[in-house]
Every structure is written in structure tokens, then in C-alpha cells.
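WARN retry 2 of 3 for item q-0093 after timeout on previous attempt; input resubmitted unchanged.
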Amino acid sequence: MKKILLKNAKLVLEDKLINGSILIFKNRIEKIFIGNDNLSEFTFDEVINLEGKYLGPAFIDIHIHGADGADVMDSSEEALRKISSYLVKEGTANFLATTLTSSKKILINTLKIIGELQDKDIEGANIFGAQMEGPYFSPVCKGAQNDKYMKSARISEIEEYLSVKEGLVKLFSISPHNQENLEAIKYLVDKGVITSVGHSAASYEDVMRAVDFGLSHATHTFNGMKEFAHREPGVVGAVFNSDNIMAEILFDKIHVHPEAVRTLIKIKGVDKIICITDSMSATGLAEGQYKLGELDVNVKDGQARLVSNNALAGSVLRMDIAFRNLVELGYSITDAFKMTSTNAAKEFKLNTGILKEGKDADLVVLDKDYKVCMTMVKGEIKFINL
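OK item q-0093 returned
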């Protein structure tokens, strides 16, 4: 295997920036050099001069439905490969293919397809698993989920989903508004699946009880959940107050006001925030009519909305834009990488998300304007525009 040196970069470490270089060998970060120290002692098969550009851990998107005209719910390898190929252009090296509320038959078939490509070396970003978004939600907070399939959880049904492939379902979004769903949360957690409160009209007390059952994540915080009020803190209040909950945020400046994003980060801290895109098939394409699962969506002015009721229907956000939005809001580059890569890697126990010797070489190169110039997945260059 080739020894690749990425030299003359601004390396984004967990708590600081340094000038240096990185040696890639056998899909891993073999060595980190500070400045030009000791470079003459090594030989390399390929040297790429990054000319002072930023080099950081590639983005991780744990909540994405589609891109470039393809949808996870298309239930085809072709669709997943198309999404994967697009994501490296925005600096993403790992993602969870995310399902929508649908029939059991369709969901099982979709999971089977995702399982076929999980952790395989494909054209672009790596699919490290699946997130199931639904079907155990509150219809009153359905958002762009299809309420005709919503119901209370049944452990026997969840067993069918998990049995498609061991270790495939990494994250399960659910509303903890009744006893059946609480029991399902405990079952999922016992099986090693991270559970997330989402599309939920549950009370503050319901969510805190779910935390006692093992719930530890929040699906696109603020959106599709009972709002915070001073007499009823709701789902949002529980996300604020529970140190056990990792909070997703969809920071496209449409779903959540930037100052609400700042409020969330101030309350939770940068180590408890994960930026997601929740992007749908229209991402990267022109405005017009698209599908989100079975639902018709109109994309205009950067917003994806259901044709039926004008509700926001996912997004057309890219992870590099979310990163840039964080920096524009005043957060440091190191903190922005935590919220777009490091925190997700830690939560899902991935050997990536940080520049450190021995970690997988999932890397992104950004120019001074934070535009993606190169994406490396497990030591292979999957996108380059230097």
C-alpha cells in the first residue's frame, strides 16, 4: 500500500491549530509531523502539498435521507451509491443512511439494501449503518413523516428490524409518549442501539423518564418536538436539562434561527452537539418538484416543503455549509469540527473524527473560505479539487 504524505497544512487538532503534515499508510494516520520536523527521515510514495489549507477530520452525517436525486427509501444500491458519491464533494466520509416512517415491508427491504453496502469500499462516503426515523412517532408532531404508518412500538416488530443484520441499526428515533414506546427504548438500548427522541409531543416528564430507560439523543432539536414554555418545558426543555442527551441540530438558517442554535450550544456545550443535514434527494440539484419517500416536495429558495401543507420536509443542506454557518456564528474552527465530526465519532465509537495517529484516515481539506478541496475516506482520495 502507498505511503501518502499530506504536507504543508494547517492541521486542525482537537484543541488547537498547528502547521504540519500527516503520513497516511494502510488506511490510517501513521504519523503527524509538526512543521517540517523529521520529514527527511521518511520516504513517501506520493506527496500532496496542501499549501497552507486546513486539514481536519472529515464530516460525519448521522441523519441524511438523500442527495443528488437519490433517496434512501428508493431501496436500491444504485441510490445509496449515488448519495455516497455526492457526499464526499461536501467533505463527508461517513454517514448513517436514514429511513422514513413507512410500512414494515418497505422498511425491512430498505434495511437489507443498506446492510449490503454497510462498511463496504464504495465510490464515496462510507455507510457505517442505518438510522431508523420512525415509525413510532406522535402524529401531532409528524412534520414530513407519513402519519398513516405511525403507531405504538411493538418489540416483536423491532426484533424483525434488528434481525435484518446485526449491528446495522445504529440509531432509532422514537417518541416516548406512552409505555409501549418506553419499553421499546429500553429494549433498543439493551441491544446496543442509540435511541433518540424525535417527532414527539411527549411531556418533559415523559422524556426524562425515557432518559432513565436509556434514551440519549435528540432528533433535529427544536424541529418536530414539543416546544419549550415556562409552564411546560416540553421535549426541548428535557434536551436542555439532561446531560445524557446528545443534541442534533439542523443549522441551515431555515429550520432553526442562528441565535436559537447559539442558545442550544450555550446550554449543552460544544461536546454535546452534532450537526446534521437531514438532506433529501434534491440536495445538489435545481429547484423543482421532488419526492421524500412517498410525499411530494417542492424545493424553492433553498427550502424543501411538502406540497400538501407547506411543512418543511428535510433540507438541501450540505455539511460544509453547516460547518461554515458555525464559524460565521463565531465558533472556532476546532469547535466547528467537534460539532460536525468528532462528537459523532465518539458517540458511535468510530475510529475517526480526530487527527491522531492510529485513527482512520477520514480527512477533509478546506480552503481559506472553508470550501472542500479534498476528501479522503479510509486513506483513499475520493474527491479532489486542489
